[in-house]
Amino acid sequence: MLGRMGAALRRGYQWLYPVRSLYLRSRGRVRYVSLSRPFQAFVSLVLIIALGWVAFASINFGLRNQILGEKNAQISGLQASFQDVTNELRATRLRFISVAGELESKHNHMVALLQQKIELEQQLDALSANLRAATKERDAASLEGDQLGHDLREQRAALAARIAALQESLASSEFAGSALSSDLKTAHKKIASVESVRESLLVAQTELSGRLDNVMGRLDRLRGYQQTFVSRILKRTESDITSLEATIAMTGLDPAELLSDSGNSADIAQGGPFLAFSDAPDFLRPGWNEAVAFEQSVIELEYRLRRWEGLQSIVEILPMATPADNFYVSSKFGRRRDPITKRWAFHGGVDMAGPPKTSIYATAGGTVAGVSSRGPYGKSVLIDHGMGLKTRYGHLNQILVNTGQTVDFREKIGRMGSTGRSTGTHLHYEVIFNGKPLDPANFMKAGTYVFKN
Prior knowledge:
By secondary structure, the protein is α+β, with helices and mostly antiparallel strands.
């Protein structure tokens, strides 16, 4: 079979490449050149290689143009992406400058709040001193008035006794007749003497009444000054309380509930059966309204100051700062598509994306309740701020605190990473109240409002 195939190839070769001759005529002379079969085969092979090379070069040139077009498109896309990254970097720098300014204003506001607290404590000390002085002066005036009243009653009793004795003497003298006329003259003299004593007692009574009125006037003026001072402090304290309650309400928390949990009652402790004021004893009615109103103002001021201090202590533990300086929110609180399963799920915090190893800070002072390196949060820190408030910082690259450690506001606790159930570098930040997650964005918004104002 191989012999037949070889014979067929030889016949085909001889048929394709017969011996050819080229005749060349020049100046009447004829020459010829014989073209052998190997030479013809070699020329054919050279032509076939040349044609193949031309075809390959043409195809390669077309493909290269197509590849160059695709590369140009990729370069254009990369340039657009580079421009987007440049714009994002510029925006990030602007946000960083804005956050730095906000932090500075927050610090200044905290300093102002501390100064205001010191001033209020000084004013409260001054008020307490004035109250003690007023109480001593009032007690002294009351003792002086009581002594004057006691002397006046004694003098009146003595005068009445002497008049009664003289009247008895006069009556006995009238019944005795003319024989007792000398005694009657003596009695008239005694009556004249008694009248003189009575006049002197009336003058003394008028003088004592004037002194008592002067003391009461001084007490009224002092009470009026103290009432004005207490009212001014009460109004200012009420304004601060309203501002603090509005700030706490912005976070979604109930100020009254937090005060109750902290031991500061929302109502003034009072009680007793109801009695109409018309049934009150007579000695309570003159000047009763002014005295009771002043005492009520002092009691209300003490209550408001306790409430202000309670709200201030609550604000100091609320996590209203941002846990990082350089970030953008990549996933909000609430309903979202799970980044792994793409199914609808509940997101109990806020995801803040940023550069790797970005510093993470405690948003309020507290105690580190736990640190973990496993689970869906990866490397995480849980801080207890008291009164049922906790914050969690997840997916950290590095943890810088230990369980049980006390941390201050804005103390560095770790670095941003992508540990645990994460698709990229970010911080998972949670705010938890009594075991339930709250939206951290409300706390950061309230913090921006507080520190700006």
